[in-house]
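Example record

The entry below shows one chain as it appears in the dataset: sequence first, then structure tokens.
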Amino acid sequence: MDLLNTLVDKGLRRELPTREEALAVLATSDDDLLDVVAAAGKVRRHWFGRRVKLNYLVNLKSGLCPEDCSYCSQRLGSTTGILKYTWLKPDQASQAAAAGLAGGAKRVCLVASGRGPTDRDVDRVAGTIKAIKDQNEGVEVCACLGLLSDGQAERLREAGADAYNHNLNTSEATYGDITTTHTYADRVDTVQKAHAAGLSACSGLIAGMGESDEDLVDVVHSLRELDPDSVPVNFLIPVEGTPLAKEWHLTPQRCLRILAMVRFVCPDVEVRIAGGREVHLRTMQPLALHLANSIFLGDYLTTEGQAGKADLEMIADAGFEVEGSDQVTLPEHRAAGGCHEGGGGCASATDGPQVNEARTDLVAVRRRGAGTDLAPNA
């Protein structure tokens, strides 16, 4: 396909695909799917070889959130029956992190529900970062605490945080349909604050919320413009008790097309398969490793993931290798502070996503690990 040859060439040069080209990737047929994966895989291997970075989530504070994000089981008024607890102490969080690090993770992602941290919360997280780093030499720590106020990103950086995550989630045009208690601009502002403070910015999206192809392309192009070092791609987990519990739009094939599109638009960025890969990619997860160079190990914030041992076996069986703590994730030009070129084009309309059969049997609320007395999945 001429389209795929063009996209591979652009990916190797870090040139931005047009919106029309990105939309065309999402519109490819199932017959062409393996060709799409192979083409995007060339770009992935060019920048990241066959390495897979492992990340581990620690939910520092679960539930009890005043925001109304429709996709989230921790939202205001949630009836999902998830674990709910206030802040873990630094030693509890460090113990939880140790399980993931022992399983091969090189980055720990410290997440707390809520609109954003108070200054006291930043102090709490600073203590947790210190506890984790004191016990684990070379570990990367990413904080994800919501919207940041002036000066908080700098304080987290001084405390030893390496990165800050705040996802855009969906396009600016449809953001108000998903969340009303804060704005798309608020999220962009927090990513920019992280950048300005010298933190490695991490920002991604959630697919499967009923968005159009245009919405997906728009948010990924917006992410390219923000220039984060890592882009987590979440696939909506439709948890019962949330407003989006009936949104089952994803097939394994569509998930692979979305990941391929993200790789073409963000060729030299750490593309991470985040929440929902087990639910929607299912047995196609190994193919996704040809597109993304990073995954979460074990469980997610409020739902269970694939067994950590199974993740490691999957990586090995697919012919990939776990990235070591002594290896630099990003290509040299990005690790040195390089940025993408600008550009873009006009989008054309495409058909909406095909509805997939609901697989509620694959969604399991987390009952182990942080906030419980049970061993974590790592």
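Notes for this example: The first helix runs from residue 2 to 13. The two ends are 41 Å apart (CA to CA).
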